[in-house]
Amino acid sequence: MPIYEYLCQTCHRRSSILILSASHLISASCKHCGGSKLDRLLSRFASPKSEDARLESLMDPTNLGHLDENDPKSVARLMKKMGAEMGEDTREVEEAMMSESSESEEGSDHTDSL
């Protein structure tokens, strides 16, 4: 069951349409504006990974090269990437990390002025 992507010529937005059967093609319409003038796009092939494969790719040392464990923003970016890979909602963790980053920046500005 492929999912085809189309570009609407009316509103210039993308729509993804699930085709249940190759023998039963439906007339595609834009999900945003309802337009029928669509161009089919070439899209990337997607293949699901197992949980083990996702964890293994996250722990690859080449993916951790940009991590600065002393920088809350850097750690927040890693957490966001890990959450996206695992399908978890990490907004609360990201907000806490960014809040801590802001507080540490304010503290360092204060000490610099002393």
Offer a quick outline of the entry.
This protein has about 110 residues and is of the alpha+beta class. The chain has three helices and three strands.
Provide an overview of this structure.
This protein is α+β, with helices and mostly antiparallel strands. The protein has two domains: 3-41; 51-106, no CATH class. It is built from three helices and three strands. The protein has helices at residues 51-58, 72-86, 91-113, and strands spanning 3-8, 14-18, 38-41. Strands 2-1-3 form a three-stranded antiparallel sheet, with no helix packed on it. The longest helix has 23 residues, at 91-113. It is elongated, with a radius of gyration of 22 Å.
Q: Multimeric state of these chains? A: single chain
Helix content: 40-55%
Radius of gyration: 22 Å
Structural class: alpha+beta
Order of helices and strands: EEEHHH
What order do the strands of the largest sheet run in, or round the barrel if closed? 2-1-3
Globally, the shape reads: elongated
The biggest sheet amounts to: 3 strands, antiparallel
Approximate strand percentage: 5-15%
Number of H/I helices? 3
CA-to-CA gap between the ends? 65 Å
Which runs of at least 5 residues are low in confidence (pLDDT < 50)? none
Mean pLDDT: 75
